[in-house]
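Hi R.,

Here's the chain you asked about this morning:
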Amino acid sequence: MDKSKKDIITCPLCNYEFDKKESQNSCANCPLHKKNCGLMRCPNCGYEFPEINDKGLMERIKNIFKNEKNKRGNE
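And here is the predicted structure, written out as tokens:
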């Protein structure tokens, strides 16, 4: 079964790669599931995040938080 690259999601927290359908299955018990909250849930670690197709954007967001953490550690 050939999965399209657009259907494969990488968790920004644990780097686990999964199919979008796996995320939908892990959200099945959530009360917001049918209202489409716009979040993806990693079936590996449970981290919820917005679906972002631009991986570069996600890297920039991670770097912002890393830089802020480093600034606070140096004060």
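One quick note: The radius of gyration is 15 Å.

Cheers,
M.
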